[in-house]
């Protein structure tokens, strides 16, 4: 197990298991680390090789994350996914990221799961799609204006 993280300002971060890992107070099985990102094995994995990827920046949900931290996560995810596939032997994987209790976020610190798919066990997703209504153009315009 490895502990300790470099270059992290977590004074404002709410107290979570991830903040304790970032401060080196809890151990983790570190897979990757740079100045902005830490990736480690999930201790409650859905499949062998299940990783958690977290920014070092204190943010509860992805909309609170800075562009720099989001870009750092975006650079790390493909490399980590390739490693998970290679080591686990999986031919598919899920990247899961939840924001807020209503979206099943259990730890209030931005985190991504990379979950190898090794058969029917593990992550199950219920997807009940609707239809984009006649208001699609107005909705797209409102979203674009909100940027």
Please give a handful of descriptors for the protein shown.
alpha+beta, HIT family, subunit A, five-stranded antiparallel β-sheet, 3 helices, 5 strands, globular, disordered N terminus
Spatial strand order of the main sheet? 1-2-3-5-4
| Overall number of structural domains | 1
Beta content: 15-25%
Give the SSE string.
HEEEHEEH
**Total number of helices:** 3
CATH architecture annotation name: 2-Layer Sandwich
Shape: globular
CATH homologous superfamily grouping:
HIT-like
Rg calc: 17 Å
Terminal Cα span:
42 Å
The percentage helix is 25-40%
User: Which structural class do you get from the secondary structure elements?
Assistant: alpha+beta
Under CATH at level 1, the class stands as Alpha Beta
CATH topology: HIT family, subunit A
What does this structure look like?
There is one protein chain. A hairpin with a 3-residue loop joins strand 1 (30-33) and strand 2 (37-41). The chain has 147 residues and is α+β, with helices and mostly antiparallel strands. It has three helices and five strands. It has one domain (17-123): 2-Layer Sandwich (HIT family, subunit A). It has a five-stranded antiparallel β-sheet with strand order 1-2-3-5-4, with helices on one face. The model is unreliable at 1-13 (pLDDT under 50). It is globular and about 50 Å long. Helix content is 27%, strand content 17%. It starts with 16 loop residues before the first helix and ends with a helix. The chain has helices at residues 17-22, 67-88, 136-146, and strands spanning 30-33, 37-41, 51-55, 92-96, 112-117.
């Amino acid at each position: 197990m490895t502990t300790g993280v470099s270059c992290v300002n977590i004074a404002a971060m709410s107290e979570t298991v991830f903040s304790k890992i970032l401060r080196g107070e809890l151990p983790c099985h570190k897979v990757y680390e740079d100045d902005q990102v830490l990736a480690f094995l999930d201790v409650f994995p859905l499949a062998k090789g299940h990783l958690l990827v977290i920014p070092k920046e204190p943010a509860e949900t992805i909309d609170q994350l800075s562009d720099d931290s989001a870009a750092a996560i975006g650079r790390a995810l493909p490399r980590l996914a390739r490693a998970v596939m290679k080591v686990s032997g999986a031919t598919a994987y899920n990247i899961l990221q939840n924001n807020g209790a209503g979206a099943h976020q259990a730890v209030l610190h931005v985190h991504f799961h990379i979950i190898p798919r090794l058969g029917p066990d593990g992550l199950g997703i219920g997807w009940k799609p609707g239809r984009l209504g006649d208001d699609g153009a107005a909705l797209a315009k409102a979203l674009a204006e909100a940027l």
